[in-house]
Specification:
Helix content is 36%, strand content 17%. It is an alpha+beta fold. It is globular and about 60 Å long.
Length: 528
């Protein structure tokens, strides 16, 4: 339990249902749907739609989504609603054009958005309400206006140059060439019209007809390869989740093309190392976490791709042998400059939310544009911000994650679920692009190894690596930073925090729910 002498958040307790989101308007929308008789899936889509309006830098209908669903007495199921490259996206074409990398603001970074198809699939298969009901609050906010929240304004202000490149973004996402200020009321009438069309006509309002035609025309005008058939053919798919044991529970993630396997590789290793330090916030613990992460992420970059097109050695990555090999390479006292090649098989900026309803169904859900405001390409009539998920591809024909026709890129969106004794224990996720698996490991180990409650597990200062350095949040104690430097790490202080996160935990002892929402964002948990 936190000390009430200091600023902080308490976890939220409720008896029947709970939602945790990164923006209050989304939490309110979810609770409203639940109280009107909708279930956790209905509430999830309602919240996701609101977030697409109130956090336009993080998410939108022009992005992708993933979901894990746990129904009482059933094993978790997973939906992959990531989009695909155009049918004409052959690596040889890019070579002929002299394109060696997928640049963020180009049409080549735009795969067909999968979110709306994923929402439709979830509602049809597991929901009780239609688009007309679950999109109503998002439409209202887009039409009547919303007051810009502090973290949203902070992110918006940092992306003015990005939003100034394409006419659609300048028109819909800047006010006289500037980002809106905290508390300023903004409206998105074009996006409201698109959401209203989806509410009335379903997924086809997005993937066929005038809005699809405008997306295709916008991308083609910039040199893209997209066609109407690419959009009409987009389809979400159910996949079998993958899991490893940790702390007496089973931790579930989505399989590749999703990067959730990185968290499982790390947890496999950490289960062998035991508790890394007596103190959760110690240099010794952060050091080992970073060393394990370096190899786990190297395996991601080597192997993770679309398994429908490339062979991905999932079973190998989760074997005891791989975990043991990583353990042997870790020096618990000092950074190892070269951890060696990844173990190979023989022969071979985002929103997260979670909802639990009164019947005990849990939904772990994530929806994103990838980078802030995605590609920065926005349709002028429909107000649809298109993501830059195609940057998850590489253009090396020898790499398993090379772009190819109708292929899905390596994807960073990772919802998670912990199960115990066949029942949901915790629905959780942490935002932040590549950081997300690391965030999952922080949450799981904070709670299972150090006994933190869900809010404490999210609050703890975070460290991650990028560009060969450890990037520290400003809340990391100075003595921890100094010790990490003595252990051989090059450190830098990060000017923005690592991600955000939400948790709903099942309090089986008391028969209730415990919610937590990351203070790095504007949101909160709500329950009743």
């Amino acid at each position: 339990m936190r000390s009430f002498h200091f600023p902080g958040r308490s976890p939220v307790y409720s008896r029947r249902a709970m939602c945790a989101c990164s923006h209050p308007a989304a939490s309110l929308a979810a609770i409203d749907i639940l109280k009107r008789g909708g279930n956790a899936v209905d509430a999830t889509i309602a919240a996701a739609a609101v977030l697409a309006v109130v956090e336009p830098q993080m998410t939108g209908i022009g992005g992708d989504c993933f979901a894990l669903i746990a129904k009482p007495g059933q094993a978790p199921i997973a939906l992959n609603a990531s989009g695909r490259a155009p049918a004409a996206a052959d690596s040889a074409w890019y070579q002929r054009q002299g394109i060696t990398t997928v640049e963020r603001t180009t049409p080549h970074a735009v795969t067909v958005p999968g979110a709306i198809d994923g929402w439709a699939r979830l509602l049809a298969d597991h929901g009780t309400l239609g688009f007309d009901t679950v999109l109503s609050r998002a439409i209202e906010l887009a039409e009547e206006g919303l007051a810009v929240a502090p973290r949203v304004a902070f992110d918006w202000s940092r992306n003015v140059a990005h939003l100034s490149i394409h006419e659609g973004a300048r028109r819909h996402l800047l006010l006289d060439g500037k980002a809106p200020q905290v508390g300023q009321v903004v409206r998105f009438p074009a996006l409201a019209g698109t959401l209203r069309a989806i509410a009335e006509q379903g997924r086809d309002a997005f993937y066929t007809g005038e809005r699809a035609a405008e997306m295709v025309a916008t991308l083609k005008a910039l040199g893209g390869l997209h066609t109407m058939d690419d959009f009409a053919s987009q389809s979400a798919s159910y996949v079998t989740p993958i899991a490893v044991p940790y702390g007496g529970a089973e931790i579930y993630e989505l399989p590749p093309n999703n990067q959730g396997i990185v968290a499982l590789v790390m947890l496999n290793v950490l289960s062998r190392l035991g508790r890394l330090s007596d103190k959760a916030m110690s240099a010794e613990r952060y050091h080992v976490l970073m060393e394990v992460a370096r190899l786990a992420y190297a395996m991601r970059d080597t192997f993770v791709a679309d398994p429908a097109v490339s062979e991905v050695p999932v079973a190998h990555m989760l074997t005891a042998g791989v975990a043991d090999e990583i353990v042997r390479r870790i020096d618990r006292d000092r950074r190892t400059p070269d951890l060696g090649p990844v173990p190979r098989p023989s022969g071979s900026d985002t929103v997260y939310l979670t909802v639990v309803d009164a019947d005990g169904m849990a939904v772990s859900f994530i929806n994103s544009l990838f980078s802030a405001f995605g590609s920065g390409i926005v349709t002028e009539k429909g107000g649809i911000t298109l993501h830059n998920r195609g940057q998850g591809f590489v253009l090396d024909p020898a790499h398993p994650n090379c772009i190819a026709p109708r292929k899905r890129p390596m994807h960073t969106l990772v919802p998670a679920m912990a199960m115990k004794d066949g029942q949901p224990l915790m629905s959780f996720g942490v935002m932040g692009a590549a950081f997300q698996p690391m965030g999952h490991v922080y949450v799981v180990t904070n709670m299972f190894d150090y006994g933190m409650d869900p809010q404490e597990a999210l609050d703890l200062p975070r460290i991650f690596f990028e560009n060969g350095r450890l990037s520290l949040e400003e809340s990391v104690p100075a003595d921890v930073a100094a010790t990490l430097e003595r252990m051989g790490h090059t450190i830098e202080w990060r000017d923005e925090p690592w991600g955000g996160g939400q948790i709903v935990y099942f309090d089986r002892q008391n028969g209730g729910l415990v919610g937590a929402s990351d203070p790095r964002k504007d949101g909160h948990a709500l329950g009743y």
